[in-house]
Every structure is written in structure tokens, then in C-alpha cells.
Write a structure and sequence with these properties.
With 427 residues, the protein is of the alpha+beta class. It has three domains: 8-155, Electron Transport, Fmn-binding Protein, Chain A (Pnp Oxidase, Chain A); 159-240, 2-Layer Sandwich (Phosphorylase Kinase, domain 1); 249-426, Aminoglycoside phosphotransferase (APH), C-terminal lobe (Aminoglycoside 3'-phosphotransferase, Chain: A, domain 2), CATH 3.90.1200. The chain is built from 13 helices and 17 strands. The chain has helices at residues 14-23, 63-70, 108-122, 128-135, 159-171, 206-219, 254-267, 280-293, 298-317, 357-361, 372-387, 391-411, 417-423; strands at 27-32, 38-43, 46-48, 53-58, 73-85, 90-104, 142-155, 174-181, 185-192, 196-203, 227-231, 236-240, 244-247, 322-324, 333-336, 339-342, 348-350. The protein has a seven-stranded antiparallel β-sheet with strand order 2-1-5-6-7-4-3.
Length: 427
């Protein structure tokens, strides 16, 4: 029914499209207007991933409402980036278009839900009482819901390169070398006279990059690399490059791996909490929603539901809240001149124990499938001795983390069969 994108290499994956919709503040709604003419009107909106919908506020009458009453089918376009490059006679762009059917919300609860979602987006610091004073019972508002049937996004392939050029000029980068490059993120090594050897990161998920950057700044080198600079506009940041940079994965002695991990683990949870960080429950909620909306197999949906319940149980059992790394595995713990330290934090809020399962998940690669459970039991025992946490709780969280990994792999179009198979012994 919906066309395939002609230049498929420029297509954004669903997760990237959703990020564009979340950070956008306005778009253009296109409907079938009068006398066969299309009618396109700019609107503020809010995206609701859980219900796969967009919500708009509208006047009770007018060209748009007349058109929608005749034909509810519509499209909505959000332009996320439009950098003009005169010398190339082009723009470096990113945009998303959704297609679906628009409904006028009549149910009082549905209207209030949509109005409140808009209010939270455009006035996030207002109190519940403040919102209720403006919203009232919702009867004064006309609210529209676009149920999304199809979503597509596209970006210029040169966009990452454009941001890198800006970073080179801004921070006087020299000897730039690509370490990793994908649609929405990239990592480069470089040299600066001010900081020496550095790592430059570009990430379209600016919230994630900022969260990790702020955690490193707060820790100021305690068990971690240094964070030097951040550009919120381009989603770029500069970090210390660790030398010699040997990863913990290279250490073959499991007892030494456990000891190093615990040493880093105990150093890095001193960053002060601030607003703007996700919690682990936010991650689990989004993964659960993806399984529901993305048509995951029944057994995967059921396992993700169980993972969500484990997260909820552990949040209740451990009341402390700290800023975690969120991805503290073997390749994010590097040997440097100051000893082992962590890099690339996500900056997520949860009880401290939630930083353990990602390490255990990466222990799967050291042994054969039939020895996995025995090996994990041994490693969780070593960690329990050093951290005081219960082995049973670590193994529950290992299953939870494994299911998050499964969903993230599904979102990236990667095969999940091997990981699901290894998780069976912890079901």
C-alpha cells in the first residue's frame, strides 16, 4: 500500500524516526482540501509511541476540520535538520513523514490524555495543578488523533560528515580517524593541542550523549575517562582517549575480570543526580511497548513482560537511586595510565545493582553454551562476595538485561536467536 523509498540507503530506521518525532516541535499536516486541492497546515503536536499516534489541538471549525470530516486520511511531515550547503548547491537534511487516519476525540478521558500529553511536552516544568487549571475538564478543546499506519524517514548521507567538519573547526581537531560510523552516530579518534589524544562522538540521540557526558563531568576522572567538551546543537562531544586502551575482555582470568569490574563499579556511582536522565524503568517500558507495537513473537513479548516485572521488583527491593553507567561491559572498561577506567556511559538512574547484569551478559562469550549457566553462577558468586548483592537478584537482572538486549537487536534488524537460546537457562 505504501511505497518503498527509492533511495533506501538514506532511509532511517524506526527508532531514529521516533527520535525525530519526539524532539520535533512542529510539523505540517496534509489533508485533501477543497476542490481537489491538497491543504497543508503547520501544527504543534506530540508523539505517543505507546499508542502509535500523534495528537494535535485544533479549532472547532475551519478548512482543516471540513477536510478531515470528508476524508480522515492524512500525512504529517516533521523536518528535523535542514543545513544549507551553498558550495554544494544542496542541504544536509533529515525528515520524517507519517501516514494515517485522523479522528476527532470525543471521549472525555481520551481528550484529557491527549491534552495532558501536549501540555507535558510544551510546558514540562509546570505542576499537575497548573496543568489542570489550564485544561479544566477538557470540554473547551478540540483534540485530533492521527493513528499512524506507516512511518518513513530520510536523511542526507553527508550529515555526519558535515557535523564532523564543524567539530574539526570548533575544537581544532587534527589527525582525525574514523573508528565507527553509522546512520545516526559515529566515533572518531583525533588530536588537539589543548587536550592531546581525544575521542570525538557524534550522536543524533542528543539526550543520551548529554546524559553520559554530564556523568563523566560530575565524576571528573574518578574511575572514568575525562569529558572535555559538548555541543548540544550538533550532538557532538569530545572525551579523553585512554592509552594503552586494552579492554577488560582481553583479560582471560575470570577472577581478575571480576576484581577489575568491582573496582570500577565501586568508584563510578558518585555522580550527583540531576533532571533529564532516563531510568531503567523507562528503558523497560519502551522495550515492552516495542514488542507490543512491533509484532514481536508471542514468546518474546511474554519474556519481555517478565523482564519488566523483574525490573519493577528490583526497583522496589532496592530503594537507593544512583546515576549508573547503563552499559558497563568488558569493552567499556579500558586499561589506562591510571589503571582500569570506564568509558561511554549512558547515564541512567536505577539502584546500583542494575550496573552488574550487563557485565554478566558479556561473560557468555568465554564459555561454550552448555557451560554458560555454571560459568555465570561462578561469576555472580565472585561479584556477590565483593558487592554484597544476592546472586539470585543478579541472575534475575541478567535475564532482564538480556531481554533488553534482544529488543535492541530487533530494533537494529540483527539476529537474536543465539542470545535468546542462551537466556533459556535463566528463564
Amino acid at each position: 500500500m505504501f511505497r518503498e523509498m527509492r533511495r533506501g540507503k538514506q532511509a532511517l530506521q524506526k527508532k531514529a524516526c521516533e527520535e525525530v518525532l519526539k524532539r520535533g516541535t512542529a510539523g505540517v499536516l496534509a489533508v485533501a482540501g477543497d476542490d481537489g486541492y491538497p491543504y497543508a497546515v503547520p501544527l504543534s503536536y506530540v508523539y505517543d509511541a505507546e499508542h502509535s499516534a500523534l495528537y494535535f489541538h485544533s479549532a472547532l471549525s475551519g478548512h482543516k476540520m471540513d477536510a478531515l470530516k470528508r476524508n480522515g486520511k492524512a500525512s504529517f511531515c516533521v523536518v528535523d535538520k535542514d543545513s544549507v550547503v551553498p558550495k554544494e548547491y544542496t542541504t544536509y537534511f533529515r525528515s520524517v513523514i507519517v501516514f494515517g487516519t485522523v479522528h476527532i476525540l470525543e471521549d472525555a478521558q481520551e481528550k484529557y490524555y491527549a491534552i495532558e500529553a501536549l501540555a507535558k511536552k510544551y510546558a514540562p516544568d509546570d505542576s499537575r495543578e497548573g496543568r489542570d487549571k489550564v485544561i479544566g475538564d477538557g470540554s473547551r478543546f478540540c483534540m485530533l488523533e492521527l493513528q499512524i499506519a506507516h512511518m518513513t524517514g530520510k536523511e542526507a548521507r553527508e550529515l555526519i560528515g558535515h557535523k564532523l567538519s564543524a567539530a574539526v573547526d570548533k575544537w581544532k581537531l587534527e589527525e582525525v580517524s574514523c573508528l565507527y560510523e553509522k546512520e545516526t552516530r559515529a566515533v572518531y579518534s583525533a588530536y588537539t593541542k589543548e587536550w592531546g589524544s581525544v575521542i570525538v562522538k557524534i550522536n543524533e540521540d542528543k539526550k543520551e550523549l548529554k546524559s553520559g557526558y554530564e556523568m563523566l563531568r560530575a565524576l571528573n576522572g574518578t574511575g572514568c575517562c575525562q569529558a572535555y567538551a559538548f555541543d548540544a546543537g550538533d550532538g557532538t562531544a569530545v572525551f579523553e582517549q585512554i592509552f594503552p586502551g586494552n579492554t577488560l575482555r582481553e583479560e582471560q582470568d575470570p577472577q581478575k575480570r571480576a576484581a577489575v569490574f568491582c573496582e570500577v563499579f565501586q568508584k563510578i556511582h558518585g555522580a550527583e543526580l540531576s533532571s533529564g536522565h532516563d531510568t531503567y524503568m523507562d528503558w523497560l517500558e519502551r522495550a515492552k511497548r516495542y514488542c507490543k507495537d512491533g509484532g514481536a513473537a508471542v514468546d518474546v513479548r511474554e519474556k519481555m513482560q517478565r523482564a519488566y516485572q523483574i525490573g519493577k521488583e528490583m526497583f522496589e527491593k532496592y530503594p537507593e537511586r544512583v546515576l549508573l553507567h547503563g552499559d558497563l561491559h568488558h569493552d567499556n572498561i579500558l586499561l589506562g595510565r591510571r589503571g582500569y577506567c570506564m568509558i561511554d556511559p549512558k547515564g541512567v538512574i536505577a539502584p546500583e545493582i542494575f550496573d552488574i547484569p550487563r557485565f554478566l551478559l558479556n561473560e557468555f562469550g568465554y564459555v561454550s553454551e552448555e557451560k554458560t549457566k555454571t560459568h555465570i553462577k561462578m561469576m555472580s558468586g565472585l561479584l556477590a562476595q565483593r558487592t554484597g548483592y544476592e546472586e539470585a537478584d543478579m541472575e534475575k537482572l541478567l535475564f532482564m538485561e538480556g531481554m533488553l538486549d534482544v529488543v535492541w537487536c530487533m530494533e537494529d534488524g540483527e539476529d537474536t536467536a543465539e542470545l535468546l537460546n542462551r537466556l533459556r537457562c535463566f528463564c
